[in-house]
Amino acid sequence: MLSLHFSVKEWTRNKHNIKNVPSDIQLERGKALAVAILEPWRAKVGPIHINSGFRNEEVNQLADGVSNSQHQLGEAADCRPLNKILTLTECFKELIKLNLDIDQAILYPTRGFIHVSHKSDRTKSTAQLSSNRREYLYSPSKGRYFPWV
Questions:
Q1: What is the pLDDT of residues 64-90, one digit of tens each?
Q2: Which of the chain's ends, N or C, has fewer CB atoms near its CB within 10 Å?
Q3: Residue 129, class by beta-carbon neighbours within 10 Å (0-12 exposed, 13-18 middle, 19+ buried)?
Q4: Is 88:80 a contact under the CB 8 Å cutoff?
Q5: Which DSSP string do the residues of 13-79 spell out, in sequence order?
Q6: Which numeric CATH code is attached to 8-147?
Q7: How many other C-beta atoms can be found within 10 angstroms of the C-beta atom of residue 73?
Q8: Nearest CA to 121 among 37, 1, 33, 40?
Q9: Separation between Cα atoms, residue 108 and residue 46, nearest integer Å
Q10: pLDDT at residue 124 greater than cutoff 60
Q11: What is the reported pTM?
Q12: Domain boundaries in the chain?
């Protein structure tokens, strides 16, 4: 398990049924993502489905992921809250209100999911409490990103 409610199996599955096994470091990053971001968000909005979590290079290419994708590092998940009362946008707003140590959250309303990422062990220095950007974006169409305001 990554955490109480999120399994390694759901975080690594892919629609191509390609072997997609994270390294120990990538797995630790996935656990940190689940504990720091997914679990608190789940406590607020209810169950969350992970559409795409960890991706090895092959899975990332098939998913049309960017070459520097945080999915490949074990730091990201594309999620769909299963809440039938709140809209996807409202679930995104609830995520923002939680004020978590998030790197990026990107709302993809036309694609029906929210991307979340969290850096847990890389690029941190003793001078920084966190290397996470706390960046919230909105993507109304492929390749277009706007700051959430």
A1: 999 999 999 999 999 999 999 999 999
A2: C
A3: exposed
A4: yes
A5: --TT-------HHHHHHHHHHIIIIIHHHHHHH--EEEEE----HHHHHHTT--TT-HHHHT-EEEE
A6: 3.30.1380.10
A7: 21
A8: 33
A9: 19
A10: no
A11: 0.92
A12: 8-147
